[in-house]
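2024-03-11 09:14:02 DEBUG pipeline.ingest accepted 1 chain
2024-03-11 09:14:02 DEBUG pipeline.ingest length=195
2024-03-11 09:14:03 DEBUG pipeline.predict start
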Amino acid sequence: MNRISWLAVPDEQGAHERVRKLWRKAEDNLGFVPNVFRAQALNGEQFLAWWSYFNLLVNKEGHLPAAERELLAVVVSGINRCVYCAVSHGAALRALGGEPEKADMVAVNWRHADLSVREAALCAYAEKLTRMPEAMTEADLAPLREAGLSDEQILEAVQVIGMFNMTNRVSSALGFRPNAEYHALARPLTRTGPG
């Protein structure tokens, strides 16, 4: 089996009880346990605290549509070159939007993707906040407001961007490897051979 982290990964017996419960729930819902759940389980309480906030920002009903939150996740992860998050959240973006080409382009260079004005404003904001947080000014909010985002949506976007910048660093620093299932998720079947 390929290593999923450069650190030790606990097995069922070594994992925190609530972490094991989360693994079972993921297995039931997804058909597999995300490697990030296994890799971060080494410090169970910290993982559960991270998961609570991550789950609230990414998976629960929020101010932004789920597809926009995943768009931000993919843009930030692509900029940070975080393999785990770009692959896993690229899969989620494909599943939500049904546009594999768009999700793949966003992961590499969002400017090449066919985006709405609102999506492009979110991507530009995410890129600047990820690359140059010290350069942010109030004027950076204007394109988001012009694209129709409320203050609540802007705050949520900032929180999602911040979460992925942190998560990208943890994943990249420890060599987290994405599950094979993510690579095939929400991709249409293609013909093989010439033509």
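2024-03-11 09:14:41 DEBUG pipeline.report The mean pLDDT is 94.
2024-03-11 09:14:41 DEBUG pipeline.predict end
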